[in-house]
Amino acid sequence: MPADPNPQPSADAANPSLVHTLPVVVHVMDVQQITTEQQASLLALPVSTVTRARHGHLPDRLEPDQIVRMSWAVHLHVNLHRLYAEPTANTWMTRPNGRHPFDGRPPLDHALEHGIPGLAAINALLLSDLTDYPTTTHAERTAAEKFALTINADLTAWNQPTDNPQKR
Fold first, then answer.
1. What does each C-alpha distance from 150 to 146, 147, 154, 157, 159 come to in angstroms?
2. pLDDT digits (tens, 9 = 90+) for 118-145
3. Pick from 34, 17, 19, 128: which is nearest to 73 by CA?
4. pTM across the whole model
5. Pairing with 65, which of 47, 111, 135, 152 sits 20 to 30 Å away (CA)?
6. Is 115 helix (H, G, I), strand (E, B) or coil?
């Protein structure tokens, strides 16, 4: 069985080497034009920890929740670069987006508001785009809500032979 191209993040807090990935995650978010304050909120870290990590100063440990958040942030970055060229991939999180669940707000706002479930939802949307099953737009969902289908069940006219097959 082939390896999962996008495995679910795990919260292995016992692995101290994961602390060493924090500067990489901060750099990825810097590239995505996410502010230090937003990074801190998204990663559930103090602003000072994010600032120090940017300069290579690491915390002693990270909580499982923080590791999962870092993992989702990296997954999003990778999937964005699989879908889009630069600079679109690097600005996608901070630009307004009309798709559900963003509805005109930047995806970053959704992630900040919903935390890990928000990050997971964004990743699911990107994965759907990668698999050619894009999610619907707001206009498509609105049209679907108003869609009405009427079926005429008058079967008396069904398959009736005619004298002239050209008139069918």
1. 13, 10, 12, 17, 20
2. 999 999 999 988 887 666 565 665 666 6
3. 34
4. 0.70
5. 135
6. helix
